[in-house]
Design brief:
The chain is of the alpha/beta class. It has helices at 7-19, 22-29, 33-47, 63-89, 105-119, 132-140, 202-213, 227-235, 281-294; strands spanning 52-54, 59-61, 95-101, 124-130, 146-149, 158-173, 184-185, 194-197, 222-224, 240-244, 255-261, 266-274.
Length: 298
């Protein structure tokens, strides 16, 4: 059976149900009262039931109207969502802005973007490389759609969705005496030249706090801004460093690493976005692809 119901008829029904007044509903919809009455009558005729109980003093939902109300709202929301999705999907070009800690670029962001561009070639993507704290600020401030980070779990206004846990490892040149060990204790590297990321880095704050909980510390010889710079210095034989395992990719063919124990340091990698804020169509698609590829796989 064909039902001839227009979206405007359903919107009129919802507005009248919410206001219980033909005058208020007509005014809110920019309709005359007779036009509103015709819409309601048309809807009732199509549904074959009375949606409102009317008296000279008030109008209110009938039993059938109450049953139809939530379904009507669902219909309107579904139409709005579909319209929003289509308008965002086919707008050109779409620009997605991602904030990311440096250590996530080579092994998380770049491989995923290669796949994503095959799926959505029209999209443009801006990558904002930041330290962990500034990744959170970039997302909270609306500069970026979402972020890839290892902090944010306790940040107000941010939703943190964990992907996987990863260990910090001791990184050294291949052929170093440390390569003979399966695991390395902190006490075994305290006399080595240590290359640290700068004290404002989220990575350094994270592992220093972890060491402090064990009443341990590690003095540095060199200090750089980012983990890749520290790894480059290790390649040059200037010392050793601590780095998240993910940061030591296969491209560093001259480096080796071993897990740090006593104490061990582990961090949780995840995606962050503003709480209560829906992502756009394309940003959500990239966000979901990252989840699909990396959630609890490392």
């Amino acid at each position: 059976m064909r039902i001839n119901i227009e979206i405007g008829d359903i919107e009129a029904f919802i507005e009248l149900a919410d206001t219980n007044s033909f005058a208020k509903a007509a005014n809110n919809l920019n309709l005359s009262q007779p036009a509103l009455s015709r819409r309601i009558q048309k809807l009732e005729n199509e549904l074959g039931t009375t949606l409102f109980d009317r008296t000279t003093r008030k109008v209110q939902l009938s039993y059938s109207g109450r049953n139809f109300y939530e379904r009507a709202r669902s219909i309107i929301e579904a139409v709005k969502t579909a319209t929003k999705t289509l308008s965002e999907k086919y707008s050109f070009p779409s620009i997605i802005k991602i904030a990311a800690v440096n250590s996530s670029l080579r092994n998380i962001i770049y491989p995923t973007l290669k796949i994503f561009k095959e799926i959505e070639p029209r999209c443009k993507i801006q990558i904002i490389e930041r330290s962990a704290n500034y990744v959170v600020d970039s997302v909270l401030g609306g500069e970026c759609d979402f972020g890839v980070n290892f902090t944010g779990v306790q940040e107000p206004g941010v939703t943190f969705e964990s992907l996987f846990d990863e260990d910090y490892v001791v990184v050294f040149p291949k052929g170093d005496v440390l390569e003979k060990k399966r695991k390395i204790k902190l006490s075994e590297i305290k006399d080595r030249d240590f290359i640290s990321v700068w004290k404002g880095s989220g990575s350094r704050i994270y592992f220093e706090n972890a060491l402090a909980r064990q009443k341990e510390d590690l003095d540095w010889t060199y200090e750089v801004r980012h983990v890749p710079s520290a790894l480059n210095m290790v390649e040059q034989g200037l010392g050793i460093t601590l780095a998240p395992k993910l940061a030591v990719s296969q491209d560093y063919s001259s480096l080796s690493y071993r897990p740090l124990i006593d104490p061990s340091v582990t961090r949780t990698m995840g995606l962050i976005k503003r709480s209560g804020k829906d992502l756009g169509y394309d940003a959500q698609k990239l966000y979901d692809l990252l989840k699909e590829r990396y959630k609890k796989t490392v």
